[in-house]
User: What shape does this take?
Amino acid sequence: MATTAVGDENPTLSDVIKRLSPGGVYQPLVEALTVQTPELEDATWKEGNLPNGELITTRSGLPSIGWRAYNEGVTAGKSRTDQLTETCGMLEGISNVDAKLANFNGNAAAFRASEDKGFLIAMKKEVGSGIFYHSTATSPRKFNGLSPRLDSLTGPYNDQIVDSDITSTDADQTSVWLIVWHPELVYLMYPKGSVAGFKHDDMGPRMVSDAAGKEYKAFTSVFNWDVGLVVKDARYVARLCNIDTSAIAKTGKLLIEGMIDLTERIENLDYPGARPVLYMNRTISTYLRQQATDVVKSTVMDFDTIGGKRIMTFNGITIRRTDSIVNTEAIVS
Assistant: This one.
């Protein structure tokens, strides 16, 4: 007789029991897989002007002008503009929980809530990573992140890239990013006519099919997040790359010098209404603090209190530690 294994995507009785306290009540989960994605909190969000994204127009050339004398004219000119479309990706997840299993011990709502939170964490992790690494060239269903734009020291955006002086070998590199969030510079978007952020649709109990095509009653939840990244003015994003995580030292000043160079690549850090933020992972945040312990070097580092939280700053720019930036980047050349 053929047997059908329960798919890993469906919670089992074991999953339910693991979440119960001895008294049969759902206990709060220790979210060991929770990720820090402050870029999602910092970002400016804006509704796109297209159902699938944003059409942006940029000035790519200035008009010709000239000096004239009396009774002498100049040649008429015009500026040149280019248009491009930034697209949204459609991130989705589906949860099917057997109705009898969900009602085990009379705690259907509590179990489903704990499962829903897991989907939110997974989606935050995916979108956060996407801001820095997703590429529509290799994954057309996703949105285009920052690394595919600033990926060459000789490319069109090479002025926005700082090559770290820390020795770089192998694929154990990481980057520090400086993003200036503003609705006319760099922002996250959602499709025209939609709602920003994570969406949860409770489809209620319905009949679903198992792997063998047999039906059973399940509670179904659908999770959606339509999101894209718009870089309207590339002069407001900069990358310090080729930071070798196996070569960086606790002493010295190469990281600090690289970050100073990074801040100089931004056109105007005081752009009205803009929010410049530095992003780095735990490894680089640790080394930065260690290198800044020198009295002379520490003048570039400080702490501010924002919203009741103690925030590290570099030359007055907020530093945010994120789990979205990895230590396994390839060398940018």
User: Anything to note?
Assistant: Residues 76 and 315 are 45 Å apart (CA to CA). The mean pLDDT is 86.
